[in-house]
C-alpha cells in the first residue's frame, strides 16, 4: 500500500471528533435556546427536566454541558446582556436635554421589552443566585449613570432618585404586568411621570 493510499484512513478519527464537537455545540445551543424560550413564554423557574424536554435532549445532556442551573442561567444572561448593550449603548440623539431624555425613554422601552421576561424570572430566583443579584445591581448602575448623563445640572437628589425610580425596569414591569398596560400606553405613562417630576425646569 502506498503512502497516498493510507492517508484517507488517518483522516477518519479527526472526522469523527469534529462531528462529535459539532453535535455537542449544537446540543449546547439548543439547551440555552430552550431555557430562553421557556422564560419568554412565562415560565419563571424552568426546571432542568423542562429544559431538556424543550431542547429535545436527555437530562444528562443538560448537566454534561452545564455544571448546574446557575451555569445555564449564566450563559443565558450573557446573551441577554449582549442584546441589551446593543440597544442602550448607542449615543442618544437630541438638541437639548429634554429631547435626549425623550430619546432615553424610547430607548429604555425597547430595552425593557427585550429584557423584561428574563428580569421577571430573575426576580423569582434572586434570593438564591449570586449571579442574578450581581447582574441586577450592575444593570441598575448602568441605567442610573445614563440618566445622570442626560439630566440638567443642579437637579436635587430627591428629584433625581424619583426619576430613577419612575424610569427603571421594575416600574416598567409594574406598568406592563401588574397594571396591564400595553407598551405604547406604558411608555406614555412613564414619560408623563418624568414630565411631572421635571415641571418648571
Description:
It is built from nine helices and no strands. With 201 residues, the chain is mainly α. The radius of gyration is 23 Å and the shape is elongated.
List keywords for this structure.
single chain, 201 residues, mainly alpha, disordered N terminus
Would you kindly provide a brief summary of this structure?
By secondary structure, this protein is mainly α. It has helices at 3-40, 48-55, 59-65, 69-88, 97-125, 130-150, 157-166, 169-178, 183-197. It is elongated and about 70 Å long.
Structural class: mainly alpha
The chain-level mean pLDDT equals 88
Helix run count? 9
Query: What is the percent of helical residues?
Result: over 70%
Shape: elongated
Total number of strands:
0
Q: Which helices and strands, and how do they pair?
A:
Layout: H1 3-40, H2 48-55, H3 59-65, H4 69-88, H5 97-125, H6 130-150, H7 157-166, H8 169-178, H9 183-197
Helix pairs in contact: 1-2, 1-4, 4-5, 5-6, 5-9, 7-9, 8-9
